[in-house]
Design brief:
The complex is a heterotrimer of chains A (287), B (437) and C (325). Chain A has a domain of 193 residues. With 287 residues, chain A is mostly helical. Chain A is globular and about 60 Å long. In chain A, helix 3 runs antiparallel to helix 8 and helix 6 packs across helix 8. Chain A contains 11 helices and 2 strands. Chain B is an alpha/beta fold and 437 residues long. Helices cover 36% and strands 17% of the residues of chain B. Chain B contains 11 helices and 17 strands. Chain B is globular. Chain C has one domain. Classes of the chains: A mainly alpha (287), B alpha/beta (437), C mainly alpha (325). The interface between A and B is large, with 47 and 43 residues.
């Protein structure tokens, strides 16, 4: 393929995967930003979204899956918050251990009930975009668009609603927010649930592009963390920017290097962004 | 089940049902903590002190889909063996331990099986990195370790004299046997897309060597790093004049790979030659796999019934609980790992044969067991070796057998070519028989 | 700062406890059945890895998600030297240690300007680079399949004595020796002036800087010590288990020491040992009971941390033995 074809593909893929990545990271951005905890099970909410979507889409249809799966996962998150996180008072290090425990539990449940298999569904809307150099999935483009919409909606929620106000206040300073009457514990639960819902939504949308597998949560978890931190804690704009940046770097570097070497170079480049700007692209002070 | 005579068919059906129940009890996990229930699934007609065979199985981790079917196949084989009187008149008992498809845990499992459970033999590992980490420990503990892995590691000479692979063929032999078919029938300009780690490298190296032997040359190599979720960005590296795309991607991402391949190339696609490794436990009717229609797939053992029609096909399928589409009889969506799990079945029968031939009684008799096994030249096709006759090369501790090439037609696989055992044989590079025990 | 704080009765109890633990482990080898003998040897080496991790997390307050690179640096340096050059055990260990220290210095110089979550991510990414590099140089390292060192590991030589490393008693005691050294190192850190500065940095880095300490240099020291201990563990691991492979450089092997340390109690000397042993045995025991054992392991982790949020030894320190270092 000609160089301009390769570059265009890299840009397109980078943008699409960046937006999908932003969607996955969005939920984590909320959880991490508001609650200041590392939720190691965040990737499992994504996985649960995909697995539940598979069940719902094959027994009913995709629309049902799109609505019901995230809600169910949100419920699971609320239960986890109430039963596990609240009793340990969201202590950062204890939360890491507890969420690893949740990760094991979710993985085993899915393994035992859904099985070790990788399964997929047909895209609800499919058309192939035929470009001069290559073809591209129309559904992927739709997902990218939806991801952008969801990002915008979340931004509206955070900046224009009372819930968002409370979340930002809690994120700024928990004690003072509490002094001002913000029901901090309920906000934590809401943030956690919302984070899980967003992760699950990403899982549902991505299912027709990829597949549902019980181990699929680990890599997105790590990628999401990278995106959130590099974008800057507490900044949705940063999350989006970092996701696009990482997607693009990944895509562009693979044009010029052999794949494994490309991953190495891309990882170093992205790490150096954080080394040189430790609060992240749009962060407000040191994380 | 009809009252009265216990026909062979009924016994096998019962075996299948029991296997299914065993699976169900495992699915219910915490609800079936009863060890008696667990071991009873494996027990058969009692006679004499049981022969304990340790089973290192990938119950969790990336190999879990294989492990599930390896488990079912082992249960079925042991059921049959015990129904026929066991091994040397002794009842066979399987002791299974999960290694999580992890090298560190693999070593622990080998130790646990050998030292705590005190089994006579250990078998069943699949993933190469676990085999390579675990085999040395088996060698140190001096316990026969029979793997069902498909890797070239055993035959390479890098393992030890206690490690065998008698039930399944290795990648080098497979690829060597297939090269002529690919070059003759598909095309000469072959681009290889493979995972950038050992399994993929074996394909790269051995297929390139086989092609070179035929006077050809690989057109391009596209190694894909592991844990890649999306492959589109690598497709531009496939030259436009590629005639054959040889792909051997494995792992859950294969569905993505095929889908993206279809989107990228559309109708102007090269001929595709893939390996069933990519699609074990995956239904060919899965959405997104339409792109594979007409492409060629290597199989070790044809998944769809009737494609390799022997008198043993039906009894074998019935015993392991697999239907005509290669899926579980109790769940048509539960597709089996048909081209690998036969290795478990055959390995257990290999153990039976070697134990009975060598007169093995206790763990002091390993020398006789090993030497007898090494001298076995052939495992004849039959219910005990349904995939086909195997030639066992003693010095390599590796079995050689036939390979199948199938074509995807109507979302199923139809066999179009079958290789001979000799097609896959290569000059041996090792000799375990010279090593001390 | 020093002096009065090192009062004798407390020091006596501290040393007494830790020596008792080591003596217990020493004596245990004569009582354990073969399988558990091997398990405990393994636990001791992995606990050493966790001890290295704890030096950075528990005592300096820096959480890394990339320690697998230090463990594997030791593992690969020793393993490759033995495989290709046939070096002896002692030389192998020295090489492994040197490699880990060198890597820690380089990584430290690059990453220690970051802290908190940025440090977490940056270490994770560099560990990923290390992992990919071991795959990239597949021809040398064997990649994910790895290399088998059996038969190549030379025996340990003491003058005229020769002892094979595959002997169970040798494995156990070598592991115990390494664990002991690293436990004592951690004890030293807690009691030494340098160690106190590290703890001060953990508590409040800015204040420590204002008091005139070069925080960066102290952090670098901590990272080097941490990396060295982790690398030593990797080095010993490969000598005793005759295998090098990329899996040990993967993200899971960076998560494990974090889990073991937090479970056992970060910032306590014995915490990593307790955490490693506990997790290993929980997995081993539950996998014998049921196929869905991860469910039980997960539940056990949650219950454990709910009851003892600062880890097992952290809880012990809080409730009973406030003198526990």
């Amino acid at each position: 393929m000609s160089l301009e074809g390769q570059l265009f593909l890299a840009l397109l893929e980078g943008a699409v995967s960046g937006l999908v990545l932003a969607l996955m990271a969005l939920g984590l951005s909320l959880v991490f930003g508001v609650m200041r905890i590392v939720n190691v099970a965040h990737g499992e909410f994504y996985m649960l979204g995909a697995v539940l979507a598979w069940y719902l889409a094959t027994t009913a249809n995709f629309l049902v899956a799109l609505v019901a799966a995230p809600l169910i996962v949100g419920g699971v998150a609320l239960a986890s918050d109430r039963l596990v996180l609240r009793p340990i008072k969201y202590a950062p290090e204890a939360t890491i251990v507890a969420t690893i425990g949740l990760l094991y539990i979710f993985q085993q449940l899915v393994l035992s009930i859904y099985g070790p298999y990788a399964r997929s569904i047909a895209p609800p809307v499919y058309f192939r975009v035929d470009l001069p150099w290559f073809g591209y999935s129309g559904y992927k483009i739709i997902v990218a668009g939806l991801a952008a919409l969801l990002l915008a909606a979340t931004w509206l929620l955070v900046t224009r609603t009372r819930l968002g106000l409370y979340m930002r206040a809690t994120q700024q300073d928990r004690e003072i927010a509490q002094a001002f009457g913000v029901p901090v514990e309920r906000i934590y639960a809401a943030a956690f649930a919302l984070g899980a819902v967003l992760a699950a939504l990403a899982g549902v949308l991505v299912l027709p592009i990829q597949q549902a597998h019980y181990l699929m949560g680990l890599d997105p978890l790590l990628l999401s963390f990278m995106v959130v931190i590099i974008g800057g804690l507490g900044s949705l704009k940063g999350t989006l920017a970092a996701a696009i940046l990482i997607g693009l770097v990944d895509g562009l570097v693979s044009v010029f290097f052999t794949p494994t070497l490309a991953r190495i170079v891309a990882s170093i480049l992205v790490a150096m962004v954080l080394v040189l700007r430790t609060e992240g692209l749009y962060g407000e002070g040191a994380g | 089940m009809p009252a009265g005579k216990l026909t062979r068919r009924a016994a096998l059906k019962a075996a299948g049902a029991l296997a299914g129940a065993g699976v169900a009890s495992r699915l219910l996990g915490p609800l079936s903590l009863d060890p008696a229930l667990r071991s009873s699934v494996y027990a058969g007609a009692p006679s004499g002190a049981p022969l304990k065979i340790g089973f290192q199985v990938h119950r969790t981790g990336i190999g879990a889909a294989y492990g599930k079917w390896y488990d079912r196949t082992a249960v079925a084989a042991v059921k049959l063996i015990n129904a026929r009187g066991g091994i040397g008149g002794r009842r066979v008992e399987i002791v299974a331990e999960d290694d999580g498809t992890d090298p560190k845990r693999g070593v622990e499992v080998v130790e646990k099986l050998a030292q705590q459970h005190k089994v006579d033999f250990i078998f069943g590992t699949l993933f190469s990195h676990v085999v390579i980490a675990s085999a040395p420990r088996a060698g140190e503990l001096k316990i026969p370790y029979l793997v069902v892995s498909e890797g070239y590691h055993v035959a390479s000479g890098k393992m030890n004299r206690y490690t065998f692979q008698p039930g399944i063929t290795d990648v080098r032999a497979q690829v060597t046997a297939l090269a002529p078919f690919v070059l003759k029938n598909l095309g000469k300009k072959v681009t290889m897309v493979f995972p950038d780690y050992a399994f993929g490298h074996d394909h790269r190296d051995f297929f390139s060597a086989a092609v070179a032997k035929q006077g050809g040359k690989i057109h391009a190599l596209v190694p894909i790093p592991p844990t890649e979720a999306s492959f589109t960005k690598y497709f531009p590296k496939i030259p436009a004049d590629t005639e054959v795309l040889y792909h051997v991607m494995v792992g859950p991402g294969v569905l993505t790979f095929v889908k993206e391949l279809g989107e990228h190339f559309g109708q102007k696609k090269p001929k595709l030659f893939g390996f069933i490794d990519s699609l074990e436990a995956v239904d060919f009717a899965s959405p997104g796999l339409e792109y594979l229609e007409g492409s060629y797939i290597w199989e070790a053992f044809p998944r769809y019934a009737g494609q390799y029609n022997t008198q043993w096909e039906k009894p074998y399928r019935d015993a392991v609980g697999v239907d005509a589409n290669g899926a579980s009889k109790s769940d048509a969506k539960d597709v089996s790992t048909y081209s690998h799990m036969f290795g478990v079945w055959e390995t257990l029968f290999v153990i039976k044969e070697a134990v009975e031939k060598s007169g093995y009684k206790t763990t002091k008799d390993y020398k006789g067991f090993i030497e007898t096994l090494e001298k076995t030249g052939t495992f004849r096709e039959g219910l005990e070796h349904p995939q086909g006759t195997k030639r066992f090369v003693g010095r390599l501790h590796q079995a050689f057998g036939q390979q199948f090439v199938s074509q995807v037609a109507g979302k199923k696989l139809k066999v179009v070519h079958r290789t001979k055992i000799e097609d896959g044989m290569y000059a041996p590079e090792a000799d375990y028989t010279k090593q001390p025990l | 700062m020093s002096g009065a704080a090192g009062a004798t009765p407390r020091a006596g109890r501290v040393f007494g406890l830790h020596l008792a633990v080591i003596a217990l482990l020493l004596g245990l080898q004569f009582l354990l059945p073969p399988f558990h003998h091997g398990m405990v040897a393994r636990i001791m080496i992995l606990a050493t890895y966790a001890i290295g991790y704890n030096l950075l997390l528990g005592y300096t307050g820096l959480m890394s998600l990339g320690h697998a690179m230090f463990f594997s640096a030791g593992m690969y340096a020793t393993g490759l030297a033995v495989y290709y050059r046939g070096v002896g055990t002692v030389e192998g260990l020295v090489l492994g240690l040197a490699a880990a220290i060198l890597l820690a210095v380089i990584i430290g110089l690059i990453t220690l300007r970051t802290t908190g979550v940025a440090f977490l991510i940056v270490t994770m990414m560099f560990a990923q680079v290390f992992f990919l590099t071991t795959l990239y140089f597949n021809a040398i390292t064997g990649g994910d399949q790895g290399l088998v060192l059996s038969g190549r590991v030379p025996p340990l030589r003491f003058g005229n004595w020769e002892v094979a490393l595959t002997h169970p008693a040798v494995k156990y005691n070598l592991a115990l020796a390494v664990l002991t050294v690293c436990l004592l190192l951690t004890l030293w850190v807690t009691r030494s002036p340098a160690g106190r500065v590290l703890i001060a940095i953990r508590e409040n880095a800015d204040r420590t800087r204002m008091l005139g300490y070069n925080v960066f240099n102290y952090k670098l020291l901590a990272l080097v010590l941490s990396g060295a201990v982790s690398g030593l563990a990797g080095s010993v691991w490969t000598l005793l288990f005759s295998y090098v492979g990329s899996s040990y450089a993967g993200i899971l092997y960076s998560i494990y020491p974090l889990l073991w340390t937090l479970l056992g109690g970060a910032g306590t000397v014995l915490g990593p040992l307790v955490g490693t042993g506990l997790m290993t045995y929980i997995v081993d025991l539950t996998s014998g009971l049921t196929d869905s054992y991860l469910l039980v392991v997960g539940a056990a982790l949650i219950l454990c941390i709910m009851w003892l949020p600062t880890g097992v030894m952290g809880g012990v320190r809080r409730r009973w033995w406030s003198w526990l270092p």
